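Severity: low
Component: inverse-folding endpoint
Summary: output formatting inconsistent between runs
Steps to reproduce: submit the following structure tokens with default settings.
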């Protein structure tokens, strides 16, 4: 149990008994590059800081729901690889307003944890190279460090090469 900011993400981790760290940082005015900013502010390798995106996939295991994608902030996500990871044909980014409505979080603070609904989730395979990775803690200026295996298990996530 951690003291500090409580968000649906930290509540989910506490409820699951998963060990994690809380890392707050000062947000700038720019509303782009949240993950890169987090890496810079926290003095981390951008390959170890992961962004959470929502994509729509045609066909596959989640035909009507978006898919949660967790990938390093240093990389671009391959829509083709993402679609393939869930057995779909094509993938496109979700509209930011839809992403906020679906997850219950604001863009720049969308955590893969504690979302309103459990969605199919894919984590880039590079996460497994680290003892811990950093993901959004559920609001801008808050990251959570967690063991990739614990995150993957808690989210029942698939692991695939989804960056290009």
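Observed output (run 2 of 3):
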């Amino acid at each position: 149990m951690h003291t500090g900011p409580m968000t649906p993400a930290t509540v989910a981790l506490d409820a699951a008994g998963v060990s994690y760290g809380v890392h707050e940082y000062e947000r700038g005015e720019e509303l782009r590059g949240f993950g890169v900013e987090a890496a810079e502010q926290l003095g981390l390798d951008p390959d170890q800081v992961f962004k959470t995106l929502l994509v729509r996939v045609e066909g596959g295991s989640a035909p009507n729901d978006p898919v949660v994608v967790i990938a390093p902030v240093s990389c671009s996500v391959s829509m083709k690889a993402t679609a393939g990871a869930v057995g779909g044909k094509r993938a496109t980014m979700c509209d930011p307003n839809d992403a906020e409505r679906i997850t219950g979080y604001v863009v720049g603070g969308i955590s893969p944890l504690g979302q309103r609904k459990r969605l199919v989730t894919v984590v880039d395979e590079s996460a497994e190279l680290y003892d811990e990775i950093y993901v959004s803690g559920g609001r801008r200026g808050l990251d959570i460090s967690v063991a990739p295996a614990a995150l993957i298990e808690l989210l029942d996530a698939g692991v695939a090469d989804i960056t290009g």
